[in-house]
Amino acid sequence: MSNPRGKLILIEGLDRTGKSTQCEILRQRLGESTTLMKFPDRTTAIGQQINNYLIDSSYNLPDQAAHLLFSANRWERNDYIRNKLLDGENIVMDRYVYSGVAYSAAKEITGMDLEWCYSCDRGLVRPDLTLFLVNNESNDNREGFGEERYENNSFQEKVRQQFYKLFEKQASLNEDNNDVVIVNVTGCTIEQVSEKIWTIVQNNKEISSSTF
Ligand code: FDM
Ligand code: MG
């Protein structure tokens, strides 16, 4: 008999909510057959272009083109992701489609609404479980915040609204195999957050694979 399919667990959230730390802790807890992935994946050719766009505010790209690069960056890793899961490996992922849609839609460009932003990601492997980390503390004193494009409080607030719109839209479509769990991490230590996440992951019902 072949291996059971692995699980794709996604951690999403605004900047500086502790996603990367929590992804690493979860990967360790899930054990050896678990791979950690992050989007944007800055190691590929497309990812390098995205990196330049993020670190250099004078690097001009039409917003639509920037959006398509982020999506293409996911598509170039899609077969790798599918094959890992089919081989029975778990994947813990740091940002994915939801960030792609929410950050672009938050720019409020005419014609670039949620639907437009979502459309080019349709067909990507879909997570079995999504954890959305919410921290209601201010970003002002966080080290390094403000160095990259999008790292300012007024834009982050717009992104937050787009994330919630997107989750509501998903819920209204009643697509029951794509749970999004909101995890409030305000005032929590790293250990407290990792415990919350671990409890949710362990309680998650058996889920089947599908695509966006
Ligand atoms: N981001 C991330 C997007 O705008 N679109 C996407 O599809 C993804 C995956 O890139 F501001 C934004 C979110 C963030 C920036 O992400 C870099 P990290 O996680 O901070 O590296
Ligand atoms: Mg960042």
Structure, briefly:
The protein is α/β, with parallel strands linked by helices and about 210 residues long. The protein contains eight helices and five strands.
Defining key terms:
212 residues; Rossmann fold; five-stranded parallel β-sheet; 13% strand; binds 3'-fluoro-3'-deoxythymidine monophosphate
Residue share in helix: 40-55%
Mean pLDDT: 92
Cα-to-Cα separation, first versus last residue: 28 Å
Instruction: Give the total of beta strands.
Output: 5
Ligand types: 3'-fluoro-3'-deoxythymidine monophosphate, magnesium ion
Determine and state the CATH class.
Answer: Alpha Beta
SSE pattern, N- to C-terminal: EHEHHHEHHEHEH
Shape: globular
CATH architecture heading: 3-Layer(aba) Sandwich
Q: What does this protein look like?
A:
By secondary structure, the protein is α/β, with parallel strands linked by helices. The protein has one domain: Rossmann fold (3-Layer(aba) Sandwich), CATH 3.40.50. It has a 5-stranded parallel beta sheet, sandwiched between helices. The mean pLDDT is 92. It binds 3'-fluoro-3'-deoxythymidine monophosphate (FDM) and magnesium ion.
Question: Strands, helices and their partners?
Answer:
Layout: E1 8-13, H1 19-30, E2 34-38, H2 45-55, H3 63-75, H4 78-86, E3 90-94, H5 97-105, H6 114-119, E4 129-134, H7 153-172, E5 179-184, H8 190-203
Parallel strand pairs: 1-3, 1-4, 2-3, 4-5
The structure holds 3'-fluoro-3'-deoxythymidine monophosphate (FDM) and magnesium ion.
3'-fluoro-3'-deoxythymidine monophosphate binds next to helix 5.
